[in-house]
Amino acid sequence: MLDLLEGKRNRRTTNPMVASKPIPFPPEPATWPAVQATRFALDRADHREGRRGAFLKTLDAVGLGFDS
Description:
By secondary structure, the chain is an all-alpha fold. It has a domain of 44 residues. 50% of the residues lie in helices and 0% in strands. The protein is rod-shaped.
């Protein structure tokens, strides 16, 4: 890594896998709806004085709960 940062050329830094930039990947499409649903549910619970809806209760039941 330091050789790459300093621009040193050697066998490792000229390896095509190391020298080429990776293909940019978008955020995983399957996670985006879940993140948005969680954000919405937390915001809704905040507006309902902490009362959680079914979605947040389900997350709590499986150990993925969030404190709003």
